[in-house]
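User: Hi! I have a protein structure encoded as tokens and I'd like to know what sequence might fold into it. I'm fairly new to this, so please keep things simple.
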């Protein structure tokens, strides 16, 4: 099979540059396009140079329709509005859409899922192997422990992150809720401040820390009578997310239309 031709969305950003490097470092994929927001001062710049690589001749452009003509997939770690704009074009072109964008609303996710009867979408709040294994373990532990064990999720990210809780924290919360057989929307506790009253049994708590250059730290604690269990993951470099997204795109190439997750990619969907 020939190399998969990939577009990097948000190619001028930190994750976009990491994705460009990951493609350059890996076999089986080549960079086919570099997408950037209309009006960006980076339009026309060489994607390779921006990523700290030799010039590759791929210039940043805002025209996804044109660059997707000869592409097989798009790696999308941008912002909700941009991702939703990209969804329709990717589906129309019939290319794989790997979505790592966080902060998506319920209506945003409904739009994404609406195209999966005719398009291949791989979506995850976190593309790392370790985090997805952590989510599988969290689900198992939540199922094994009853509501006498409170669940608290703490996440730390760099000062520039704009959404909270992180997509990864929410993914871990979904795993815990699934293990308990409840919905996260009905059992989520966030933003404690002032006189909040006692903790409600069965709720899943979230706390978000922001500062420095932290790529992403997450912990899930199960706090029971006289004992507690904490499961955690530390991301040391965002390249791990880039390589995970690339793995997802290669896995999805040639798959039947549908909405997939990293659990599917890693063979963890039955856990």
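Assistant: Happy to help. Inverse folding works backwards from shape to sequence: for each of the 271 positions I chose a residue that suits the local structure. Here it is:
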């Amino acid at each position: 099979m020939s190399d998969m031709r990939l577009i990097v969305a948000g190619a001028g950003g930190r994750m976009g540059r990491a994705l460009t490097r990951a493609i350059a470092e890996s076999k089986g994929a080549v960079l086919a396009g570099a997408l950037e927001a209309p009006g960006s001062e980076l339009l026309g710049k060489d994607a390779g140079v921006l990523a700290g690589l030799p010039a590759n001749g791929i210039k940043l452009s805002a025209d996804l329709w044109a660059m997707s003509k000869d592409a097989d997939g798009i790696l999308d770690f941008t912002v909700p509005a941009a991702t939703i704009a990209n969804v329709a074009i990717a589906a129309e072109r019939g290319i794989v859409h790997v979505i790592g964008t966080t902060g998506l609303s319920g209506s945003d996710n409904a739009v994404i899922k609406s195209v999966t009867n005719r398009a291949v979408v791989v979506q995850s709040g976190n593309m790392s192997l370790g985090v997805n294994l952590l989510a599988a373990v969290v689900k198992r532990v939540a199922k094994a422990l009853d509501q006498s064990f409170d669940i608290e999720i703490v996440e730390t990210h760099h000062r520039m992150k704009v959404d909270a809780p992180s997509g990864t924290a929410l993914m871990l919360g979904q795993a815990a809720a699934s293990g308990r057989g409840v919905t996260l929307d009905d059992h989520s506790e966030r933003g404690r401040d002032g006189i909040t009253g006692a903790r409600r049994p069965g709720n899943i708590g979230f706390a978000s820390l922001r500062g420095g250059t932290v790529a992403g730290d997450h912990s899930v604690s199960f706090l029971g009578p006289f004992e507690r269990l904490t499961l955690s993951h530390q991301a040391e470099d965002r390249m791990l997310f880039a390589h995970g997204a690339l793995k997802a795109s290669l896995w999805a190439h040639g798959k039947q239309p549908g909405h997939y997750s990293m659990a599917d990619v890693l063979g963890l969907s039955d856990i």
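A useful reference point when you look it over: The mean pLDDT is 95. Feel free to ask if any position seems puzzling.
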